[in-house]
Every structure is written in structure tokens, then in C-alpha cells.
Amino acid sequence: MTILAEARTFVGGTWVTGDEVVSVENPADETHVHDVTVTPPAEVQRAITDARRTFDQGLWADLPAADRARVLHEFIDYIEGSAESLVPTLVAEAGQPTRFADITQLRAGVGLARQTIDLYLSMKHEESSPVPVDDLVRGRVALSIRRHEPVGVVAAITPYNAALIMGFQKLIPALMAGNSVILRPSPLTPISSLVFGMAAEAAGLPPGVLSVIVESGTAAAELITSDPAVDMVSFTGSTLAGRKILAQAAPTVKRVSLELGGKSAQIYLPDAVHRAAMGAAMVVMSTAGQACVAATRMLVPQDQKEQVLEAVSAAYSSIKVGPPTSSEAAMGPVISAAQRDRCERIVEAAEKSGGKVVCGGGRPQQLDRGYYFEPTVLDVGDNANPAAQEEIFGPVIAVLGYRDLDHAVEIANDSVYGLSGQVYGADVATAVGIARRLRTGAVNVNTTVFSAYAPSGGYKQSGLGRERGPDGIREFQEVKHMSIGELAR
């Protein structure tokens, strides 16, 4: 495989070589993938300074939206044309199957990016409001205007499990709105994100409008989330990290948009239980359960639970686990030894709390290298079990029984999280009624959609704000009201 060979980082329109390196490991076989140099602290500060300068001077923000769109389409063209090296890079650094890297990350990411530009151009960003009635200045207001303006300098922090598509999801709306952006990818998967710097250079983005920084720890992330020159932080990752970012952003009262953890429920009405095996497979296929929206709690009628456990276990037993480059493998590794260890700890805790391993529960015996964990089915007696409460981020699903639909809703809402959910039922009206009662930012009823036009985001400890859709674009904008009248004589 030929991967992206770039080892430098992109700051203020120039490529920077640091003294330290991030050594990227392939989670599928524990081999060395590539070294990327760490962005030196002084260069991280320069990224902030240059972003501030370019924004304040209006080098990008003051361009007509059509001109920004033209440059960003060229930006996307470059990334789309890099598929030959970009897809193998995604496979090697994240251990994802080639199909997922190609279709879900690259192709869907490119489609999402272009849709986002179209959506932005279709929206009104300055419009007249009804003339207000104000007793203090009655008759002096001739025009009332509401403007949506760029926030300013945005720090975008992306996760390891979907570095490319999450990069598109943050960068395109932020840049289309006229902001300057500093992108900091996960230290576990930094290589693929360097393509955004290459694309910025190729498309002629003004220097300083986009920087891509890399680090091995969290010092740079702490700087860009706390520096007064940064106006907004857009973060996707764990709830624990999200809490830290909120604390770091608080002293300067930055805008913060967070897409955090989840413990989503998939609810099967009695007439849809036959669909459970397929729904369970979708949790672990391609991502090995490493998705914040993964529906890792399966809720089924109590009197049908045994047959569901049997069907789901049969489905999981048939999933071929192995290297993502293998045409036979349907599921690859988790990202690291630490993440595999977490899966083991959660399964052990589930058993101690009365849960039972019905399928899987450990490391595949035939794979002596790589961070693999078996697709695992847990029979969980109640929602207090750790496997039903904690986000695992691995190929582990907990199956719970419910007495009636009210009980199903109660179980689904009994979580500190509220990112996503699923409801399956032949009686669509009943299924939609259940969906309306779920305290979660998105609910899929018998289907799913991922589009620039459809928002996502969390309730409760699953986050703040929205990504995608008109609401996702507005996250990167401030609202200004202007009242205009003639000068009194």
C-alpha cells in the first residue's frame, strides 16, 4: 500500500518540521506506519496568531460567498483526487476496512462537503426583520437587519475513528462561513488529516486561514482551547475530554460545540424482533463498535428476549474478524491495546453485576497480533449494569428486555447520554410515537440518513450544539442585529 508520505505539519501556509515525532502504529498488526513530526509549541502559537490576523484583515471572510465556494470546491477536488494514497492511509492508521475508508470516509465525506457548500449558498445570511416598535425611538427606525457573520478563529479537534469525514464535517461549514480554522486531529490517526493542508495549498486558500497541527499529547489542544485569540472550539470525542475543554474555554467565554459520548438504544417493537440480528451486526461491522452513535443497548420484549439473544449470537459468531486488508474480514481491530483492555474490563464488570456473556467476550485466539476483540453479546438483566450505562467504544452489545413500550422508553432514557437512538416497528405510527419520547438528539425509525441537510448532536452529556444541517452552519456564525434610521435633524 502507498500511503500519504507527508511528515510535516501545515502552519500559516507553510510546511513545518518539528524535532519530535508521533510514531503511528497500525492497530491491525502493531507495525509501524509512519512518523509525523510534532508541531513545535512556537508554531502552534503562530497558527493562532496567523489565524487571528487573516480573520481580522478579512482576507477570507470578506470574499463573496461564491468565491469561497469556488476555492473550497477546488480544495475538495484535491482530496477526492488523492484517493489512491488516502484510502490506504486511513486503513493503516485506524485499522478500518478498505470499504469503510473508501465509501464512508472519503466518498461520503466528499459528498457531505459539497452538499454543505450548496446548503450554505441556499441560506440567507442577511435579511430584513419586521420594523420593531420601540417607545424610546418610535418612528426613527427605518430598517431592521439580522446578519449571520463568522465567529472568527475556530479550533477544530477531530477523533481517531473517523478523522477524514469529521474533518470535512467541521472544516467546510466553518470555512464556508468565513472563519479561519486550526485543525488538530487525534494523535492516534494524524496522517490522513495532513491532506487538508495539502488541499489548502493546492486550492490557494490564503495563508493562515487553515492550519493543521499535530501533537503526541494534549498541550497544543489545551492552548488552542484556552487562548484568547481563539473564538470557538468545535470538538468531537469523549465526554470526559469534552468536560475538560469546557473548563479550558470558560475563562475566555468561547463558543463551544461538542459532539461527545453516547450509549444509544435500539428499540424493537414486538412486530420487528426479526430485524434484531441485522441491527446488532450494524453496531460492530466496519467500525468494531467505535462510533459515538453506536446503538450498543438493544431493547426487546422480555418474552422474546431468548430468541433475540440466540439470533444476535448467531449473527456475531458468523462475523469474520481479521486484518482490514483481508477481503474476508468484516470487522477489524479496535484502535489500541488500551481500548481492547477497556472492552475486557467492561465485560468483566458486566459479569460481576449479573450479566452473562452469550457470545464472544475476549480476544480472538487465531490472531496473535493486533488489537482485536471478539464481537460480544451480553445478556443484561437491568439497565444498571455497567455494560448498559458506560460507553464502551468496542464491539460489545448489551441486550435488555422490556415489559411494555412505556418501560422501553424508560430504559432508553435512563442514561447520562442522549446522542442517538433507533426504533424499529411495522406499525410506523407507534414507532414514531416512541421516537418522539426519546431524550436524544437523533432518532432513526426503520432507516437512517447521513446528510449535510440533516443535523446531529446530543442531549445531556452527549454534547452541546449541532453539526450538519442549517443548525450546524449557524454554529460557526454569530448573529448581529442592526437598526438603521435617518439622522435626526
UniProtKB/TrEMBL annotation:
Occurrences of domain Aldehyde dehydrogenase (ranges): 15-481
Keywords noted in UniProt: Oxidoreductase
GO molecular function terms attached to this record: oxidoreductase activity, acting on the aldehyde or oxo group of donors, NAD or NADP as acceptor
Gene3D superfamilies: Aldehyde Dehydrogenase, Chain A, domain 1, Aldehyde Dehydrogenase, Chain A, domain 2
Residues the record marks as active site: E259
Family annotation (SUPFAM superfamilies): ALDH-like
Pfam annotation, one family: Aldedh
InterPro entries linked: Ald_DH/histidinol_DH, Ald_DH_C, Ald_DH_CS_GLU, Ald_DH_N, Aldehyde_DH_dom
Similarity comment text for this entry: Belongs to the aldehyde dehydrogenase family.
Name this polypeptide is given: NAD-dependent aldehyde dehydrogenase
